[in-house]
Specification:
The complex is a heterodimer of chains A (about 290) and B (about 800). Chain A is an alpha+beta fold. Chain A has three domains: about 5-55, Uridine Diphospho-n-acetylenolpyruvylglucosamine Reductase, domain 2 (2-Layer Sandwich), CATH 3.30.43.10; about 65-175, Uridine Diphospho-n-acetylenolpyruvylglucosamine Reductase, domain 3; about 180-285, 2-Layer Sandwich (Enolase-like, domain 1). Chain A contains twelve helices and 14 strands. The radius of gyration of chain A is 19 Å and the shape is globular. In chain A, about 50% of the residues are buried. Chain B has three domains: about 20-30 and about 485-625, Aldehyde oxidase/xanthine dehydrogenase, molybdopterin binding domain (Aldehyde Oxidoreductase, domain 4, 2-Layer Sandwich), CATH 3.30.365; about 35-135 and about 200-250 and about 255-290, Aldehyde Oxidoreductase, domain 3 (Alpha-Beta Complex), CATH 3.90.1170.50; about 295-470 and about 630-780, Aldehyde Oxidoreductase, domain 4, CATH 3.30.365. Chain B has 19 helices and 35 strands. In chain B, the strands form ten sheets. A seven-stranded mixed sheet of chain B has the order 3-7-1-14-11-12-13, with helices on both faces. Chain B has a five-stranded mixed sheet with strand order 9-18-16-15-10. A four-stranded mixed sheet of chain B has the order 21-31-32-35. In chain B, helix 10 (about 375-395) runs parallel beside helix 18 (about 740-755) and helix 14 runs parallel beside helix 15 (about 550-575). Chain B starts with 19 loop residues before the first helix and ends in a 15-residue tail after the last helix. Classes of the chains: A alpha+beta (about 290), B alpha+beta (about 800). At the A-B interface, helix 12 of A face helix 4 and helix 19 of B. The complex binds flavin-adenine dinucleotide (FAD). The site of flavin-adenine dinucleotide has 31 residues of chain A, from strand 2, helix 2, helix 6, helix 7 and helix 8.
Chain lengths: ~290, ~800
């Protein structure tokens, strides 16, 4: 790979990184797992003047729950860690279903969840999951920290809400109201492929009644799509053939697929319908 | 009493000896083109066209020349001063080395920059300003022949359309008469999509012109170093003895590394102009969008059938999409390779076929991607048409095949298109396969599942293919006949070096060719070094592609070993003090007839050749052999696949895959199985996910590994392998080619299985790859699905 010339910085502390970011302004790019940024600079689609490699900063590679049950995922927590996490397996079915479906083992061992949210690829899987879970990003600059809901963080294809000088330091998933269930379904052409259609489902239920439903779609719009109407239709209900069918239809309507080499818009919409039906009929299922 | 040698133990015929190549490959000790660094070497990068069809109005290189570290910015106009803006192709057309007038496909070479390092060279490419006047792009043969289509090859005098060849083979009238007598005519139309051989290692070269000696050494990724040397001599007008082509370890070829590419030519020209070594290493996108593709043929065919299932005749037409230049690497006589080998496995009295090639605004090519010159397409059309005909007759697809397959007693068998099949046991192979897959049980299971709304399907592909071009009467490339050579030197201690003109790219020649010598001479395989890939140090050969190495170079190896044995026999007679007629051969040893204990080993004969030869005998124990094959070898295979289709998503999963291969005598069974598994993986890829397509603007979709899908171990199904052995009657050790069978015959088995799972829908065809979208659409709308470019968009 022969990218354009760039300055390479490898700060050892977050403060140092923030100072560098401040100094370079919007000429700089943060490098986390590099699994999206490096392909871009390799193809010279991106030519940042400086790269701020945050991999030498300690204390960013973690995922943990705090006392109130919120989950925090640090900026250097790799997909692979999440794939193997006992914590996710026992308490976060949607996330735990997603991690093994991100690309292949090589990409998973480098790429990060936070980096994926920052990259805001409409075909990125984590943003859908975070939308379904009501997740947030915590951004830090030399001026301090602020909290941005993922629904406002991903502002368009490959665009996030960070200001120049800000680093996303962690993601937060709030504690559930009731019992969590859910899954992630992904239609891919091959292992390691981005989603033709992806669906994140995250339910919080008490005694069969849905307190909160999160549904979000990958690969079928200019950004990840939160299926608000379907979510609202499910809230307060129990799952049965008719509520499932209604949610599946609303989700299919929310999709904005395009016809391309992976398939027609009509096909993708139908897969959304099928996936929602399957996921809600068996919320622990993993497939496709 | 001398113990007889155990041929398997010493690594002879039939031994699954480990590949000697793998040690260096697995330990990172191989030497690929990019591993070579020569003193004073500079680096070349290529500027490629972003547009598919456009007139070049200007090229401004001034900014690139100004970049520190840039040594050369080469354009087509500069190349033209050395008569190198264009070069001849292997199909008697011309191809632009660097575009001067127009760009004719996306990714076409426009200029190249040579600099101290590849980063600077790339900066230099970015600094070149090219102005274009866009022209309408053509991305399929039908657009190419439509009225008012722009003439792509306006550089060619007298070219008034976009047709590059017309060709016909067979008996037109006899076929027509047979069709007139048919009870039923079964028709099928389909497109075999464009694919790319896509070796993991891309192409590259280091040209090193020595101005003092006037010798040009080119290290390059080529499957055919000797024919390349001849081509370079012709293209660059250099004396052939002053050209040395070295093809080091190659990271996969699959046909992609047979042609001469502009990058090679540019590195040579730049080295001559700069008198320094110039290295060019292609990137993945460059490889995928500009080097030779494969397939891309539209088939329209029909079978004349009798009610009882007998096929009376076949006729078909092929429209091939040849891209911007007609540069198929194929024997001269054949305009669409050996496409007329289609239906060879069946006893069909009459056949006729026509083909027409068209220029389009796509990368040129038509290489034999794991294929003996278009036989992949031929066998795919054949097996898809055979299944469709069985359905039309309402006949069981296995029974229909059995009825029409060439029978064992019919060999040698002449096909209606003129080929001569050498040997086979086709019905037996089919039976082994049907048995292995539990055919009848599966048919029951399929019916039961269908009653529950589940869709199971079974697909069969039975095929033969001609491997091992040529014979010299019919096969030549650039006028050079298609034979091969081997040279064998046995040293005083009985260790040997075998030099061959073919060139391994992963097939394991260094392992198997030694085994052939072991079989003939009894020298342990571990004592034989196989050398290849350096034109100064190996005998002539046409190269390794089209499964021709074992049939041709392998035969040459057996023949040279026999010549060496003949001399060793004289030495043995001398040592044993008997006449030559009284000497008998057993593996690795001669003994006196009737006195088996009184003998000498081949190693003792070798020593005698250097230290104790009879008076008047020329010293040494070495020889060479040129082998001109009398015919092709015709392996046979029966492949059966079972699948389940998910009707809601169009996803299909392979339940089982059974492969029965008859490739004659197996030299190294492990390597044969590896070849079959590799080929079958590629077959699965083509059926399931892999293709290169183009959008309406002529942009290549599939220009990197995110879009051009190579299957991984994860989704590739397991393969159950079986064998039948029918030796080739004309090959010295009875071997046939096998490198491609699975890639050639496999795709139809997968596709037929999916089509069988939807056999109640009236859908006749879904074009490969059978991605979920296409299967779903066929099921939903009960219609055939075309995969022809341009790729569909919201605008459609
Ligand atoms: C072959 C391949 C297949 C893939 N398949 C999938 C897939 O199926 N599904 C999927 O979801 N993803 C896929 N990906 C993307 C992968 O998940 C990436 O790891 C992820 O999108 C980005 O994470 P990263 O840590 O590698 O980010 P990087 O590449 O390091 O950065 C990506 C972008 O985010 C910015 N950034 C990163 N971290 C921060 C931060 N902490 N603060 C501010 N900005 C930041 C960078 O500046 C850059 O612009 C694939 C990637 C590859 C190479």
């Amino acid at each position: 790979m022969y990218p354009s010339r760039f300055h390479y910085e490898a700060p050892r502390t977050l403060d140092e990184a923030l100072d560098l970011l401040q100094a370079y302004g919007d000429e700089a790019k943060v490098l986390a797992g590099g699994q999206s940024l490096i392909p871009l600079i390799k193809l010279r689609f991106a030519a940042p003047a400086a790269i701020i490699d945050i991999n030498n900063i300690s204390g960013l590679d973690y995922h943990e729950e705090d006392s109130d049950g919120s989950l925090y995922v640090g900026a250097l927590c790799r997909h692979r860690t999440l794939e193997r996490s006992p914590l996710l397996r026992s308490k976060h079915p949607t996330m735990s279903a997603t991690a093994p479906l991100i690309s292949d083992p090589m990409v998973r061992s480098r790429g990060t969840l936070v980096g994926s949210l920052c990259h805001a690829d409409p075909q990125g899987d984590w943003a859908s999951v975070m939308l379904a879970l009501g997740g947030e990003i915590i951004a830090r600059s030399t001026g301090g920290e602020r909290v941005i809901p993922v629904s406002q963080f991903v502002v368009g294809p490959f665009q996030n809400a960070l200001q120049p000088g800000e680093i996303a330091v962690r993601a937060r998933v709030p504690a559930p109201r009731g019992t969590r269930s859910g899954t992630y379904l992904k239609l891919e052409r091959r292992v390691g492929d981005f989603a033709t259609v992806g669906l994140a489902v995250a339910l919080e239920t008490s005694g069969g009644t849905i307190n909160r439903a999160g549904l979000a779609l990958t690969g079928v719009g200019p950004s990840n799509i939160q299926c608000t109407a379907a979510e609202q239709a499910l809230a307060g209900k129990t799952l049965n053939a008719s509520t499932i069918d209604q949610a599946a239809r609303l989700a299919a309507e929310a999709a904005q697929p395009k016809t391309d080499v992976r398939g027609s818009a009509e096909f993708k919409r139908h897969v959304v319908y099928t996936f929602v039906t399957r996921a809600l009929s068996n919320p622990q299922a993993r497939a496709a | 009493m001398a113990q007889a040698l155990d041929e398997i133990k010493i690594g002879g015929l039939g031994s699954s000896r480990k590949r000697v190549e793998d040690d260096r490959f697995l330990r990172g000790k191989g030497n690929y083109i990019d591993d070579f660094k020569l003193p004073g070497m500079v680096h070349m990068e290529i500027l490629r066209s972003p547009l598919a069809h456009a007139r070049i109005t200007s090229i401004d290189t001034s900014k690139a020349w100004q970049i520190p570290g840039v040594h050369m910015v080469l354009t087509g106009d500069m190349a033209a001063q050395h008569n190198l803006a264009w070069m001849p192709t292997l199909s008697y057309d011309t191809q632009a080395v660097l575009a001067t007038d127009k760009v004719r496909f996306q990714g076409q070479e426009i200029a190249c920059v040579v600099a101290d390092d590849p980063y600077i060279a790339k900066d230099g490419c970015e600094a070149i300003v090219v102005e274009y006047e866009p022209l309408p792009p053509i991305v399929n043969p039908y657009q190419a022949v439509a009225e008012g289509a722009p003439i792509i090859r306006d550089d060619k005098e007298g070219q008034t359309d976009n047709i590059c060849y017309r060709w016909e083979v067979g008996d037109r009238e006899g076929t027509e008469r047979a069709f007139a007598q048919a009870d039923l005519v079964s028709k099928l139309e389909l497109h075999y999509p464009r694919s790319h051989p896509s070796p993991i290692e891309c192409c590259g070269s280091i040209a090193d012109y020595n101005s003092a000696t006037a010798k040009l050494t080119v290290y390059m990724t080529t499957q055919a170093p000797h024919i390349i040397r001849a081509a370079v001599a012709i293209v660059a007008e250099l004396p052939e003895h002053m050209i040395r082509i070295i093809s080091p370890d190659i990271g996969g070829g699959f046909g992609n590394k047979v042609p001469v590419y502009p990058g090679y030519v540019c590195s040579i020209l730049c080295s001559i102009l700069l008198t320094r070594p110039v290295k060019w290493i292609e990137d993945k996108t460059g490889n995928l969008i500009s080097t030779h593709y494969a397939r891309d043929i539209y088939y329209k065919g029909e079978l004349a059938l009798r009610k009882d299932g007998k096929i009376l005749a076949v006729r078909f037409h092929c429209d091939s999409d040849n891209g911007a230049f007609f540069s198929d690497a194929q024997p001269t006589k054949f305009k669409l390779g050996l496409i007329h080998s289609a239906f060879a496995a069946y006893d069909i009295p009459f056949g006729y076929m026509t083909a027409q090639g068209t220029y389009t605004n796509k990368a040129p090519g038509g290489v034999a991607y794991r294929c003996s010159f278009r036989v992949t397409e031929a066998m795919f059309f054949q097996e898809r048409a055979i299944q469709a005909a069985a359905y039309d007759l309402g006949m069981d697809q296995a029974a229909f095949r059995r009825l029409n397959l060439v029978k064992s007693h019919q060999f040698p068998f002449r096909t209606p298109y003129g080929f001569l099949l050498d040997s086979g046991q086709y019905e037996k192979c089919l039976d082994v396969a049907l048995n292995a897959i539990d055919y009848d049980d599966f048919l029951r299971e399929k019916e039961e599942a269908r009653a529950q709304g589940r869709r199971l399907g079974i697909g069969i592909s039975t095929m033969t293919e001609p491997l091992g071009a040529g014979n010299s009467r019919e096969y030549d490339i650039l006028g050079i006949k298609m034979f091969d050579a081997a040279e064998l030197r046995v040293h005083p201690s009985g260790k040997a070096i075998l030099k061959i003109g073919s060139k391994t790219q992963g097939q394991g020649h260094e392992t198997t060719f030694a085994q052939i010598v072991t079989h003939e001479l009894g020298i342990p395989a571990a004592d034989i070094l196989v050398q290849h890939g350096d034109t100064d140090n190996t005998p002539f050969g046409m190269g390794t592609y089209a499964s021709r190495s074992t049939p041709v170079a392998g035969a040459a190896t057996a023949m040279v070993a026999r010549k060496v044995r003949a001399k060793a026999r004289k030495l043995a007679a001398h040592l044993l003090e008997v006449s030559e007629e009284d000497v008998e051969w057993e593996l690795g040893r001669f003994h006196v007839r009737g006195a088996p204990n009184n003998g000498v080993s081949i190693q003792e004969c070798a020593m005698a050749a250097y230290g104790n030869m009879p008076d008047g005998m020329e010293p040494g124990l070495e020889n060479n052999a040129y082998y001109d094959p009398p015919n092709m070898t015709w392996p046979f295979a029966a492949y059966i696949v079972t699948v389940e289709v998910d009707p809601e998503t169009g996803v299909w999963d392979v339940l089982r895959m059974v492969a029965v291969d008859d490739c004659g005598v197996r030299i190294n069974p492990m390597i044969v199985e590896g070849q079959i598994m590799g080929g079958m993986t590629e077959a699965y890829a083509m059926a399931n996910m892999q293709f290169i397509t183009y959008d309406a603007e002529g942009n290549c979709v599939g220009s990197n590994y995110m879009d051009y899908l190579l299957p991984t171990a994860w989704e590739t199904p397991g393969f159950e392998l079986h064998e039948v052995v029918t030796p080739s009657p004309h090959h010295p050790i009875g071997a046939k080619g096998v490198g491609e069978c699975a890639a050639v015959g496999g795709p139809a088995a997968f596709v037929n299985a999916v089509m069988d799972a939807i056999d109640d829908t009236g859908v006749r065809n879904i074009d490969m790859p059978l991605i979920p979208d296409r299967v779903w659409e066929a099921l939903k709308y009960r219609r055939d699905i075309s995969g022809a470019p341009p790729v569909k968009s919201d605008a459609d």
